[in-house]
Amino acid sequence: MGRKKRVPEFEETAPDDFDPANPYKDPVAMLEMREHIVREKWIDIEKAKILRDKVKWCYRIEGVNHLQKCRHLVRQYLDATRGIGWGKDGRHPSLHGPKVEEVESE
């Protein structure tokens, strides 16, 4: 008789009662929101790792033709790595990419 392995249960969506304007109003919702954000970041990081392994495999298999054959994987990998991670600058993920210069209209 062995023990049954239990899988921890968690919500896959953000908590409904979290108020971003006043995060300390409900401490339980704040912690649930923090766990949700961390879980989503880890998922994005692991997706990027899988894509990185695919790029490595493609480079190794394709050899000298890797520039043409692996271009789509490299683009997916670069898009997946943009805006993820644990940076302390607090910027929104859309601001992590390359700077886009605004064109002045006449």
TrEMBL record:
Keywords: Electron transport, Membrane, Mitochondrion, Mitochondrion inner membrane, Respiratory chain, Transport
Region span, Disordered: 1-23, 86-106
InterPro entries xref list: NADH_UbQ_OxRdtase_su10, NDUFB10
CC per GO annotation: mitochondrial inner membrane; respiratory chain complex I
Localization in the cell: Mitochondrion inner membrane
Biased segments, Acidic residues type: 10-19
Biased composition range(s): Basic and acidic residues: 88-106
Pfam families: NDUFB10
Similarity field: Belongs to the complex I NDUFB10 subunit family.
Protein name stated in the entry: NADH dehydrogenase [ubiquinone] 1 beta subcomplex subunit 10-B-like
Originating organism: Durio zibethinus (Durian)
Species lineage: Eukaryota, Viridiplantae, Streptophyta, Embryophyta, Tracheophyta
